[in-house]
Structures are given as C-alpha cells and as structure tokens.
Amino acid sequence: MDSAQNPYQAPKSEVSDISHQEGEKLSLKQIWFSFEGRVPRKVFWLYGFLLMLPLYAVVGIAFAISPKLGLVVAVPLYIVMVWAGFAMQVKRWHDRDKSGWWLLLSFIPFANIWAFIETGFLRGSEGGNRFGGDGTGLY
Length: 139
What we know:
Elements lengths: L27 H6 L7 H10 L2 H13 L1 H29 L15 H11 L18
Helix pairs in contact: 3-4
C-alpha cells in the first residue's frame, strides 16, 4: 500500500539541525521558566541557589512581621521557586543529553542522590546535542 494512501502512516516532518557547537545565552526568564534548552553547571548553581536566597529572605522577613503576611508572601513565591527549580533541573538533564523526565528521579529516595550529583556536579555533553548547543563558555 502506498504511504500517500495509508491513513495510518506516521506523519513526516523536517527536523532542524541543532547540532551547532555553541549555544545561545539565555535570559533570566528563560533560565527560570522555560523547559527548553540547556544550562551549564555554573548557571544552575548561580541562578538556582544564589539568586533564590533573596527570595527566601523576603519570606523570612514577612513571617517575622506577621505569620499571615508570611503565608500570603510565601505561597506564591514558593510556587514560583518550585517551577523555576524544575525548569533549571530539566535544562541540566538536557545538558547531560538526557530527557527532562529524568527529573522524576528526584522524588525517589536514594536515586535522588544520584540525580543531585548528575545535575549539580557532572559536566554536560561537550558540543551540541539534541537539546541545543553547549553554553558552557557563554557565562
């Protein structure tokens, strides 16, 4: 049976070549809220840990003023921080040339230790991979 006549034939599309060697520098919005692309370890630690410390300080100050104010401030900030944490971890898995679904290892006891080592301390794949170019030298 000809593929033009087969209604069960899988669709075909052109796949763009993303095997370029150097990636592009991501904006803070892309780093924290996008699940696409790659981020090197430096960006993961700098934007993921150091830049979220002030948010924790804001929540702490709000709780010190009033527990009700603390909750009003904490809940939306924690939602944003969890989203940003997931987005950055997915991009770290992409940097290791693995699917973002590997993020689920973070929820499994003892496997989460390996996920932490892999995303936090191991270098991403050198050069371009299926998720984009290597941005290690950009930051």
